[in-house]
Structures are given as structure tokens and as C-alpha cells.
């Protein structure tokens, strides 16, 4: 008789996967907050100094947005009831999209904007729908190519993967810090339709993408440039309009994606592009077509957020952020840890091993700080880190106090492949 084969249930396989994550110090755990998003958060009954949110302008708990949310709910109700193309597209959505397009109309001729529930949804919709344009390319010059930066956000990576599966596009990865390889690949590419996909601000390193150089390549080799400016909108540019304003760029080859749950302080995202490209998203973007519209009260609240971002208060908050960043960059130094040269509110400290990052995060927790350890696959192997982020609500004294704690903690953490508390 043949020996009976061991059978594995889905639960067995799930247990194995979780045990594997535990063994590699990669398991993540939820922590429940008990207070509004701010620089001090109540977590499990403890008040912690938070340096980990993406609320860069400190608007998430702003009284004007709280009042606008209540007004929007009173005017439009709690939900939208359907997708945008059925009955869920409110006048509040339309007004918001008009204002978002206005923010980018100096940079994208004939701009139109489309509002989404999340940045993830916006990225997947834009990449899949725009890659699909290649299906209409002439048979004499077929093919679709997608060029994606190696350190792009997971939502861009997943959008590229889905687009490639749907369209059989060829995917090429490139290093955004060295565009020579990308230029050579584009020069030899005969595909009729090409997309270049990039983060405007890289979320784990805080550095800016070389968007002007990428746009020059897009023009030279007849490509569309998709820029996910999730961490730039609200922060970069004189009026907070993002990386296109920061670099003073203009082109109808740009597809701009902004997130509204970070510096804008609320939730959702938008895609802004030439009106013809936007119409293609409405007609062919399956995630947009088949998702229930965001509650109109959210869109109504975001109109107030845009007013704050563009106005005097927004300018003052961005100026304060720049002061915090300057102090951090000029005054903080380590013996072994690596601090990046970021000019954005994202200020990572690279420790290397998962154990070292977890140890540092635990010591910070004991000191009253909430700064989670960031580990693979969010960042490359061997580059686990503390992802420290600033808010305009942080004071200079609070930032200097964190710097002192970090320098003290560094001496307690051994940074090597077996890092642990000493």
C-alpha cells in the first residue's frame, strides 16, 4: 500500500505562512488608536508622540474640516448609494473635480480631474486603462511597454502587473536615480504605446523623482508619463499643488495622480490629465466604473481642505515644515545609522536588519514615541528602517527632543545581521 499523503487544509497553510513571517521578524500587528489623528495619539490608554502619519500639514483634525464634514453630511447624507456612472455622482464630486483640475491646469493643458475612493484605486485604474490604449495601435507597429521605477509604491506595482496581465505589455524596471539605462531601453523600443510610471516623492526614502528628465524622455520617445504624487500634493509648490508646480512643468503627456488622505487631511485621491485621456478612464477604468462613489460629504470637506492648502494658512504650514526639515538635516547625526538627505517631511533612518529596526522602535515606544519599524517587502531586504514623518503640528522643541532620544537609543542597538538589544 502507498503511504497516505499528508493533506494540508487552508488553515494549515495559513499557519505555516504566519510562522514563516514570525521567524523572519516580518509579521505586522494592528494597533488601535483612541483619539483623532494628531501629533499626540492615545494608544492603548497611553499618550504617545506620533512621528509616523502622513498628515503632513496637520489638517486631519482641523476644526474647519470637522465643521465641513458635518455640513456635508447634513447636506448630502452619509453615503452615495451607487457608482458614479449610475446615480452616485453628486454635485459635490463635480465641484471638487473642477477645483482639482484648476490646481493642475497650468501644468496639464485642457486638464480634467476624476475623484477616487483611494490612491490605490486611482493608480490601478489609471495604469490599466491607459495601458489598454495600446490595443488600438496600428498592426504595423504593435506592442505595449511599461517602464516602472524599481522603488515605486505597491499600488503602482500592482497596477503595472494587472495591466501587463490584461494587455501582454512588456514591463521594464528602472532605477530612478540613474536614467541612462531607461534612456537606452526607450531608444531601442519599437512598441507603439509606452508608459513611464513613477512616484513623485518616494514614500520610504523621501526623495524627489527626476520628473523633468523623465518628461523629456517621454517627449523624446513618445510615451505617457504617469506621476503618483501621493506625498507631494499639498506639500510641494508655492500653492501646495505638488511636484508639477515645484518643477514648473507643463505637458499634455503627464498623467498626474494626487492623494487626498495625506497632506489634504481627509481621504480619497484624484487623477488629472488631458480631458480626452480622462474620458478614457471613465469609459474603460473598471475599478472606477464598478466602485460605489465616495460619500459626497467627503468631497464637500475636501473643498475646504483645498482652500486651506492654497491659502495663507497652507503657506505658513509648509514654511514651518521646511524649518523642521532644515533643523533635522543640519543638527542630527549618528555613529552607525544612516540618515537620508530628504528635503520632504519623510525622514527615514536606515538601520539595516529587521531586528535592529524592531529594537529601536521598542525603545522609542518605552520613551513615549510611536514610530513603527518598516521592514520588507515595503522596503528592500537589508534596509529596515524607522520611517519618521513630520507634521506642521510638530513643534521645533518636539523635533529636537526626538533627535536626542534617537541618538541615545543608537548606543543601545547593535546594528548587524543579528541585531538585538544590548
What can you see in these coordinates?
Helices cover 41% and strands 16% of the residues. It has 15 helices and 14 strands. The model is unreliable at 415-422 (pLDDT under 50). Strands 3-9-8-7-6-4-5 form a 7-stranded mixed sheet, sandwiched between helices. It has helices at residues 10-23, 63-76, 84-88, 91-104, 119-131, 154-167, 180-187, 211-220, 243-247, 275-284, 286-289, 296-310, 312-331, 354-366, 396-410, and strands at 40-43, 46-50, 111-116, 144-149, 170-174, 193-199, 224-228, 254-259, 269-274, 338-339, 346-352, 369-370, 373-374, 384-389. By secondary structure, the chain is α/β, with parallel strands linked by helices. The protein has 2 domains: 29-58 and 314-410, Aspartate Aminotransferase, domain 1, CATH 3.90.1150; 63-310, Aspartate Aminotransferase, domain 2, CATH 3.40.640.10.
Strand order of the largest sheet: 3-9-8-7-6-4-5
User: How large is the count of helical segments?
Assistant: 15
Rounded average pLDDT: 94
CATH H-level superfamily of the largest domain: Type I PLP-dependent aspartate aminotransferase-like (Major domain)
CATH level 1 name of the largest domain: Alpha Beta
CATH architecture of the largest domain: 3-Layer(aba) Sandwich
Number of DSSP E strands: 14
CATH topology of the largest domain: Aspartate Aminotransferase, domain 2
Quick description:
The protein is α/β, with parallel strands linked by helices.
Descriptors:
disordered C terminus; alpha/beta; Aspartate Aminotransferase, domain 2; globular; 422 residues; 2 domains; 14 strands; Aspartate Aminotransferase, domain 1
Amino acid at each position: 500500500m502507498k503511504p497516505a499523503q499528508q493533506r494540508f487544509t487552508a488553515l494549515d497553510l495559513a499557519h505555516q505562512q504566519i510562522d514563516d513571517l514570525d521567524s523572519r521578524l516580518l509579521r505586522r500587528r494592528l494597533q488601535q488608536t483612541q483619539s483623532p489623528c494628531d501629533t499626540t495619539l492615545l494608544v492603548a490608554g497611553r499618550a504617545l508622540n506620533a512621528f509616523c502619519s502622513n498628515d503632513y500639514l496637520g489638517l486631519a483634525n482641523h476644526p474647519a474640516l470637522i465643521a465641513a464634514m458635518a455640513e456635508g453630511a447634513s447636506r448630502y447624507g452619509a453615503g452615495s448609494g451607487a457608482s458614479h456612472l449610475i446615480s452616485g455622482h453628486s454635485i459635490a464630486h463635480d465641484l471638487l473635480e473642477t477645483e482639482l483640475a484648476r490646481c493642475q491646469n497650468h501644468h496639464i493643458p485642457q486638464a480634467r480631474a476624476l475623484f477616487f475612493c483611494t490612491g490605490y484605486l486611482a493608480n490601478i485604474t489609471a495604469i490599466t486603462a491607459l495601458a489598454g490604449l495600446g490595443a488600438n495601435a496600428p498592426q504595423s507597429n504593435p506592442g505595449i511597454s511599461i517602464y516602472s521605477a524599481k522603488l515605486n509604491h505597491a499600488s503602482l506595482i500592482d497596477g503595472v502587473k494587472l495591466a501587463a496581465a490584461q494587455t501582454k505589455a512588456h514591463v521594464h524596471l528602472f532605477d530612478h536615480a540613474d536614467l541612462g539605462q531607461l534612456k537606452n531601453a526607450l531608444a531601442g523600443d519599437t512598441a507603439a504605446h509606452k508608459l513611464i510610471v513613477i512616484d513623485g516623492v518616494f514614500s520610504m526614502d523621501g526623495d524627489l523623482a527626476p520628473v523633468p528628465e523623465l518628461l523629456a524622455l517621454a517627449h523624446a520617445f513618445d510615451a505617457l508619463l504617469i506621476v503618483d504624487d501621493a506625498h507631494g500634493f499639498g506639500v510641494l509648490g508655492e500653492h501646495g499643488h505638488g511636484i508639477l508646480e515645484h518643477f514648473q512643468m507643463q505637458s499634455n503627456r503627464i498623467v498626474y495622480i494626487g492623494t487626498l488622505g495625506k497632506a489634504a487631511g481627509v481621504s480619497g485621491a484624484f487623477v488629472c490629465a488631458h480631458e480626452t485621456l480622462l474620458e478614457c478612464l471613465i469609459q474603460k477604468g473598471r475599478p472606477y466604473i464598478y466602485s460605489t462613489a465616495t460619500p459626497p460629504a467627503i468631497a464637500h470637506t475636501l473643498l475646504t481642505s483645498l482652500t486651506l492648502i492654497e491659502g495663507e494658512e497652507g503657506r505658513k504650514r509648509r514654511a514651518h515644515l521646511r524649518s523642521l526639515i532644515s533643523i533635522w538635516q543640519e543638527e542630527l547625526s549618528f555613529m552607525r545609522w544612516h540618515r537620508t538627505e530628504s528635503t520632504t517631511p519623510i525622514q527615514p533612518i536606515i538601520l539595516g536588519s529587521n531586528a535592529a529596526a524592531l529594537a529601536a522602535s521598542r525603545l522609542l515606544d518605552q520613551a513615549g514615541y510611536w514610530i513603527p519599524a518598516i521592514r520588507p517587502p515595503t522596503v528592500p531586504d537589508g534596509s529596515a528602517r524607522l520611517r519618521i514623518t513630520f507634521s506642521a503640528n510638530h513643534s521645533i522643541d518636539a523635533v529636537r527632543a526626538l533627535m536626542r532620544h534617537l541618538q541615545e537609543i543608537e548606543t543601545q542597538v547593535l546594528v548587524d545581521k543579528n541585531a538585538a538589544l544590548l
